[in-house]
Automatic annotation (TrEMBL):
Gene3D superfamilies per UniProt: 1.20.5.170
One Gene Ontology term from the biological process aspect of the record: positive regulation of DNA-templated transcription
Keywords: DNA-binding, Nucleus, Transcription, Transcription regulation
Gene Ontology terms: cellular component: nucleus
PROSITE patterns registered for this protein in UniProt: BZIP (PS50217), BZIP_BASIC (PS00036)
This protein's encoding gene: LOC107808808
Name of protein: BZIP transcription factor 53
Amino acid sequence: MSALRQSASSSASEDDQRYAGMDEKKRKRMISNRESARRSRMKKQKLLQDLTGEVSRLQVANKNILAKIEETTERYTVCTAQNNVLKAHAMELNDRLRYLNDVINDTGLAVDAADPLLKPLQIPRPMQPIASSGLFKF
């Protein structure tokens, strides 16, 4: 620290000695310009440090966003696969329903209300085909 003070004071005294022969106004202007240039360099250095910090912060934020995008893409892939399985299952159930309706229509089965297996269904009239158009929408 004292070395800095000595160099600063020695440079100030060197400046004074260097400009001793100049007129006072010109000497003060040159010293003022040097101080202004020093402040300008310090200001630029601080701006550079601030911008470097901002770059680091934005890089971290970018990594977080990329991780979230990757996670969301994986979840989307899983949901798409599950959706395809469910669509295939729905198509299979629709085919089975169509087949059962065809069996009912072709054989003309009469439903016996006295059958204990059918009592929970409480069927008041003969069985009619079940419409499947509203069950699954794609």
